[in-house]
Amino acid sequence: MAEPLKLKAKSASPGIASGPAFLAEEPKAASAPGTGGGYGALEKAIDISIGELERLADGADAESRDIIDFQIEVLRDPTIAEATGARMKADENVVFAWVATLDAYIGELEAADEEQMRARAIDILDIKNRVLGALAGTPVADFPPGSVFVGKDMEPSRFLAHDWSKGGGIALFAGSAAGHVALLARAKSVPMVVGTGRFSAADGDSVAVDGDGGAVILEAGGMLIPPLAPAGDIKTESGELRTADGVPILLSININDPAEIDALDPATTGVGLMRSEFSVTSIADAANEERQLAIYRRVLEQAGERPVIIRMLDIGGDKPLAGLEDLPALEPGLRGIRLLLARPEIARVQARALLRAAVFGKLSVMLPMVTFPDEIDRMRELFREEAEKLGRRSLLHRMPPIGMMVEVPSAALMLDTFGSAAFFSFGTNDLTQYLTASVRDGNEADAGKAAPAVLRLIEQAVELAGGKPVSICGDMAGDPRYLPGLLAAGLRHFSVAPARRRAIRSAIVGLNADGTRAAGE
Ligand code: PEP
Ligand code: MG
């Protein structure tokens, strides 16, 4: 059996603890929608948060009460309310005004010279997320008693809400021995180490925290996160699948829920489309960088070496988002990238979450409903700006390749002008709708009649792609009736719903790469 791995760390609270790992960035339950009501909604969420903190303070020891009082004081601080109010007057939605105000505060603390001050940043992050949780209706998630909390940092309220009587410990990749959680851990005799650096462990893996010697010990299987190969090449040898005449074909899956990543078996190339809008169900979720990061990280870690394409929020139009209607100056009809560029505060949060998630796997980012090349350039610039901010905050991140959905007919016709897209993926659901003046999920017979026009457009567009990676993730990819036409159009990478994989695999092996039926079929 392999030797356990011992990582050096800094002791923050003495004692030895062991137990199953709890990975902090597990996604929380889907949020309840609705953050309308402007400043009133924020005031209510702050009141709820203060109430929660007061309940936590009941029966708490003196140290805990001090920390809770500090958080309540910040929540009652009129300068924070004023700064949030000023941002709202400048046309920001209440949730984003709150996030921007608190982020500015966190940024100041993180840049402080004194460690004591820097260690306060996690308290403000804690407050920010508690209020976001109250706005969205999601409480701060607890973790199983007796487990070892593993994460970048820990919010004091998580510590306070947790039952430590069953044992357990804390191992933080970053963190501070001068922070509130360390202080609480010492007061409650919870072994804790900080500054372990990133390591990978699965939920439930056995982990020991040595708060005396300053170490974390991982059972065999845990490892330091190795540097990844440069991202960008979305080809992989896994999922070896060939047409009857021997041409390799890639078969990926589309996922709408992070849990569907479980369907990624070794014979599948990767995730060809993750529709992120299904994990972000309210404006408060859209403003919650940590929550999004947790979701993307989980998917990437589970995919391991296999590529994952996460599509930025395709919201607006026929994909509503609760609370979107409350955003000021939002024109009707804005959808996908146009909406993201019109409300960059939404895009910036998601860009930061994606940049940070990119270090955990082989991520590519895909932009929805792209119509004009400058939309990609503007989004790239936004990613660059956010990457710079993360760099200033010393947060690990990596710039992922940025590609686009080809689902607007005018973009398909002009694909050679999208020089800054790293890759293309055909979205035949919208492509068919907009090409044929039909409705999505319309009549089957009409979709069949429309197919030749859609296939011709795809064939021309594949030519115009100029050798860049091209795939298809619309529903046509999962329908064996269209496979001959799609192969003939030059497509070699298909991303389908997990349930469609089997049918597509068996159809592919019976066809030649030009779409003709193989001899004997
Ligand atoms: C498409 O339009 O084909 C597509 C994959 O995107 P969605 O179905 O999410 O609109
Ligand atoms: Mg679409």
Task: Write a brief structural summary.
The chain has helices spanning 38-57, 62-76, 78-89, 94-110, 115-118, 121-136, 156-161, 180-187, 283-286, 289-303, 336-342, 344-357, 373-392, 409-413, 428-435, 444-464, 483-488, 501-509; strands at 5-8, 10-13, 16-23, 148-151, 169-172, 192-194, 199-200, 206-210, 215-218, 223-224, 250-255, 271-275, 307-311, 362-367, 402-406, 424-426, 470-472, 493-496. By secondary structure, it is of the alpha/beta class.
Mind explaining what this structure looks like?
- With 521 residues, the protein is of the alpha/beta class.
- The chain has 3 domains: 5-24 and 143-224, Phosphohistidine domain (Glucose Oxidase, domain 1, 3-Layer(bba) Sandwich); 39-136, Orthogonal Bundle (Enzyme I, Chain A, domain 2); 241-508, Phosphoenolpyruvate-binding domains (TIM Barrel, Alpha-Beta Barrel), CATH 3.20.20.60.
- Helices cover 40% and strands 15% of the residues.
- The chain has helices at 38-57, 62-76, 78-89, 94-110, 115-118, 121-136, 156-161, 180-187, 283-286, 289-303, 336-342, 344-357, 373-392, 409-413, 428-435, 444-464, 483-488, 501-509, and strands at 5-8, 10-13, 16-23, 148-151, 169-172, 192-194, 199-200, 206-210, 215-218, 223-224, 250-255, 271-275, 307-311, 362-367, 402-406, 424-426, 470-472, 493-496.
- The strands form 3 sheets. An 8-stranded mixed beta sheet has the order 1-9-8-3-4-5-6-2. The chain has an 8-stranded parallel beta sheet with strand order 17-16-15-14-13-12-11-18. Strands 7-10 form a two-stranded antiparallel ribbon.
- Helix 1 packs antiparallel against helix 2, helix 1 (38-57) packs across helix 6 (121-136) and helix 11 (336-342) crosses helix 12 (344-357).
- It starts with a strand and ends in a 12-residue tail after the last helix.
- Mean pLDDT is 86; it is low at 26-35 and 223-239.
- Phosphoenolpyruvate is lined by residues 273, 275, 314, 407, 427-430, 473-474.
